[in-house]
TrEMBL record:
Keywords carried by this UniProt record: Membrane, Transmembrane, Transmembrane helix
The protein, known as: DUF4083 domain-containing protein
Spans through the membrane: 6-30
Organism (species): Fictibacillus phosphorivorans
Amino acid sequence: MQSLNVGDLIFQLISFLVLIAIITGVGLLVKRAVTTDRRLKRIEEKVDEINDAKRRERP
């Protein structure tokens, strides 16, 4: 059985790092989507409150 070459080790390390980067990237995209959704909901609630206040002011 042959020992691993330095090139094989470097290739495996780079492959592992690419896999970790993909997983991290997907996680960050999901986190950003959730954060954006929460932010949009808060903005929508504030706009609804402002609209309700304007409707109450009008006779």
